[in-house]
Amino acid sequence: MTSRYEAVIGLEVHTQLTTSTKIFCGCSTAFGAPPNSHTCPVCLGLPGALPVLNRTVVEYAIRAGLATRCTIAPRSIFARKNYFYPDLPKGYQISQFELPICTGGHMEIETTAGGRKTIGITRIHMEEDAGKLIHPGEGSRFSHVDLNRAGTPLLEIVSEPDMRSSDEAVAYLRKLHQTVVYLGICDGNLEEGSFRCDANVSVRLRGAEKLGTRAELKNINSFRFVKQAIEYEIERQIDLIESGGAVVQETRLFDSASGVTRSMRGKEEAHDYRYFPDPDLVPVIVSEEWIQSVRGTLPELPDAKIERFASDLGLSRQDAEVLAADRALADYFEACAAAHNNPKGCANWVMGEVIRVLNESGQTIASCPLPPENLAGMVKRIDDGTISGKIAKTVFLEMWKSGKKADRIIEEKGLRQVTDSGAIEKVVDEIIAANPEQAAQYRSGKEKVFGFFVGQVMKASKGKANPQAVNDILKQKLAQD
Fold first, then answer.
1. Is residue 124 very low, low, confident or very high in pLDDT (cuts 50, 70, 90)?
2. Which of 69-73, 150-154, 395-399, 443-447 shows the lowest per-residue confidence on average (mean pLDDT)?
3. What angle do CA 340, 346, 347 make, to 5 degrees?
4. Fewest CB atoms less than 10 Å from the CB: which of 131, 190, 216, 326?
């Protein structure tokens, strides 16, 4: 970006809620059903059908508001947002406008410069989703409409225009994604459209207070695409201004194949939608008792978990951030550390072998076949010297495949570490005697040869010799002429 300009970015994030039924009817929200099989007169907007608010949607909105430090409105109302699209059967969307359920929150992010920054949250409101258009293929002259998604509950989370780069926008988006998944109100599946955003992007001369004309980039469901779309749009607007043109307020779509944004339509203002209170829905009244009840169910959120892992469990902040990135992974680690009081040892195995094998097998931590208690049992055997770290990798893979506990595998396969110094001395003597040239090199000052001897002793003992004992005895023996 030309140094004369700065970007001003705000995000509107649509979060699909994990309720089992839709916001105003009893139809299922399950993804992947045959087209138009999860519909009824209410979500199809048929005459005479009346909506009934799903209480869980309100509860999830309160959870999101509390987690983002919003004020929860004691009274909010639903409005009709009037516009016509083929996938919006009623001709209007039930949303919230003048009186949303949550306002005035904020979220902390880590910037690329390593500092923290506060991103304001203007509002969080409840609304229903529209359906989905299905385009058969290139050159087709028609589209199909699947209304299974119509009426699916959404929270729209609207930020202040506080971000100044694509990196900050992605950091905020990732933090928000992590938060709603931690709260259990959204599955966070970007591919299925459960978490998608619109980005409002404008540029202005650096130091100017007046905002530039913004373009809205619609329905982006990938962190990578959000970054690409924003960066392209910033450069497009700067080039336009520098060439003497003017930025037009409009809605644009991001073409991920070409990496460019394209004009979709002129940007609507609030008055274009003719908002008015929905006459079929009563105001939403949220008591202080309800708010406190929901507050009591909130999980420990990522920032607090990171601080606790670092302060109480002695992990580095970097390790704590890796483990706290996913709630299920954090729970797995904590169960492991609770079963054996060596948080660092447990953390190393979870971040190392557990994540590696999960990635290789395409599994998630939720489907991990190795119980955390079994992993803790193996770490305990490393700590008490029963097995070495190298042998532990063999034990780990066998536990993963068979479901057996570490102690049983160690005994069945004879993997117990050799700690008897007499037995190790005998092997060391044999290795030194068999390699007089290398022994002479070591004694003449070539210390790198020491690794050769360690490897030979470990090989001769089939990896069972205690590594520390091997090192100590080798040093003692090689020091002798």
1. very high
2. 443-447
3. 145
4. 190
| Identity of residue 271 | H
E strand spans, 115-208: 116-128, 132-134, 144-146, 153-159, 195-205
Q: What token pair was written down for 56?
A: 């869980």
**In order of start, what are the domains of the chain with their CATH numbers?**
5-290 (no CATH), 300-412 (no CATH), 421-478 (1.10.10.410)
**pLDDT value, residue 267:** 62
- Quick one: 448 exposed, middle or buried, by C-beta within 10 A (0-12, 13-18, 19+)? exposed
Residue 208 φ then ψ, to 5°:
-70, 150
For the stretch 37-50, pLDDT in tens is 999 999 999 999 99
Residues with Cβ within 8 Å of residue 239, at least 6 apart in sequence: none
Task: Kindly provide the b/e burial profile for residues 61-77, where b requires at least 16 CB atoms within 10 angstroms of the residue's own CB.
Answer: bbbbbbbbebebbeebb
Take residue 66 and report the two structure tokens written for it: 């509390």
What are the φ/ψ torsions at residue 3 (nearest 5 degrees)?
-65, -15
